[in-house]
Design a protein that fits this description.
The protein is α+β, with helices and mostly antiparallel strands. The chain has one domain: Cysteine proteinases (Cathepsin B, Chain A), CATH 3.90.70. Helix content is about 15%, strand content about 30%. The chain has helices spanning about 1-10, 50-60, and strands at about 40-45, 65-70, 80, 95-105, 110-115, 125-130, 140-145. Strands 1-7-2-4-5-6-3 form a seven-stranded mixed sheet, sandwiched between helices. Strand 4 (about 95-105) and strand 5 (about 110-115) form a beta hairpin. The mean pLDDT is about 95.
Amino acid sequence: MENAFDYIKTAGGIELSKDYPYKGSDGRCRFDQSKGALKVKGFHFAPSENEEDIKNMLFTTGPLSVALNADVLQYYSNGILDFDENDCDPQGLNHGVAIVGYGSENGQDFWIVKNSWGPSWGEKGYFRIARGKGTCGINTYVVSADLE
């Protein structure tokens, strides 16, 4: 994720999704600096793996780039993912996603996470995962861009 933030910084910014929609396929970059909506000056990591700290960081800085073990995501369609360490190794980080929100349903706290597999996957491209217990390692590698 740091490489992506460094690239955006070097390239001179990033366009809005409506100007440069994600296609999920290999191709050549068509970034138009004149349409740059945001510029990145750097990045910073979460102060700890404590999910209350991460929740506060999300509230303060906006969406957070995170790594997690995504092995269980291939079977996801809806609901709140909730696995223990035996079913989803928190050290097996293998996918990058973005935490965009949080909530609670029937007493279970969860993160709202945007995936990169398109709107036909999961809950219109998003999934929910248990919050507060490090499910699938979602709290171990958390980084946010510093915007200009």
